[in-house]
């Protein structure tokens, strides 16, 4: 982070904390330069950045002032899903969401894809190009069903940051995290079984359960601390739950990081009932605070946690490189992988392994964390500015996703249909529920360049939300 970005972040925090109030004149450029020991141009750049985020505005010959703003929206309250196992629906809505990817002029404002434009990805392109130039026969051949050894070695290395002590033989490479979760589910469950999930929960998990004939019981989930351990215990007392699926770090869709004490409590509870935990760790490397949060897998002593992850959110989804550390379920996971896909794409496995081995991965992660955190600060200001009062907004601690809860009577499905006519697609909250709840919620992302087009799109969404809420109240 540059000096002017660091100063802008500090001033933004002071504004958020109320040290500088709405309409109040900010310190002069010269006084800030002296206070922080930086140049006048550094202060000017910091003020320009805060102006772009609409936190401040300038008045000729008078200086800079804190912009008038709406109050910071509260975070969503603890969710209250149906407390019984249900069969999952919503497939038609998911299919409609996926179809938006094919429309090249559509702004996918709720998409789960990372920023693919950064220069820190250039070494990956070069590695892929060199592979083709060398005509290495390995990249056209089958590799081991568990994945190529160089990649498994590198995955074991980067897992150390999460607190895990894994070896290459503890890891099975998959076609992205989606396959990792799918084979993990099939390894621990049979059709008709029950799995506990967060509520809201990633729609890909929901549809995997639907496809395997598994029922889901949604557990109340807090937008700050994650799944309610108390509610999960009550569910275990009433139902024969075989496994729990959680996204504890940089959660999709709400962005929270479950505190370590609650991770330990969750693991202890699951051990007591002799169930499994399927841990989706795909966003965890994008936590804004470093070191990244520990995984539940790192606390596991008896192999009941199946850790699933990939480079789909940190590098690029098109690589289709993921993995699962299946613990005691290794043999079953390998069998399920053989049944579904057999080997994983070879070329991208070797490319990702080389990208990590040559030391490009960590600098890329550092850059993306900074970009996404900075984008969030601007994007959340836009949401606060353009959306009506009476909403709740999650406060992610990493990744690039935001969850917005609107008044109960609001219908985000109808909103999405209206927005698509304007070339904008959001993700409707009902996709994240087995029972179709959260129809009044949206998931948005902030990976896009924060330019005039993106701001205009947020403004259009906010105006459409305001009209819809007014219509509900009429």
UniProtKB/TrEMBL annotation:
Molecular function GO terms recorded: transaminase activity
InterPro entries (UniProt xref): Aminotransferase_I/II_large (IPR004839), HTH_trans_reg/aminotransferase (IPR051446), PyrdxlP-dep_Trfase (IPR015424), PyrdxlP-dep_Trfase_major (IPR015421), PyrdxlP-dep_Trfase_small (IPR015422), Tscrpt_reg_HTH_GntR (IPR000524), WH-like_DNA-bd_sf (IPR036388), WH_DNA-bd_sf (IPR036390)
CDD domains according to UniProt: AAT_like, WHTH_GntR
PROSITE patterns xrefs: HTH_GNTR
Record-annotated HTH gntR-type domain positions: 1-69
UniProt key word Transcription: yes
Superkingdom in the source lineage: Bacteria
Keyword list, A-Z: Aminotransferase, DNA-binding, Pyridoxal phosphate, Transcription, Transcription regulation, Transferase
The family this protein is said to belong to: In the C-terminal section; belongs to the class-I pyridoxal-phosphate-dependent aminotransferase family.
PANTHER family per UniProt: HTH-TYPE TRANSCRIPTIONAL REGULATORY PROTEIN GABR (PTHR46577:SF1)
Protein known as: PLP-dependent aminotransferase family protein
Organism: Candidatus Pantoea multigeneris
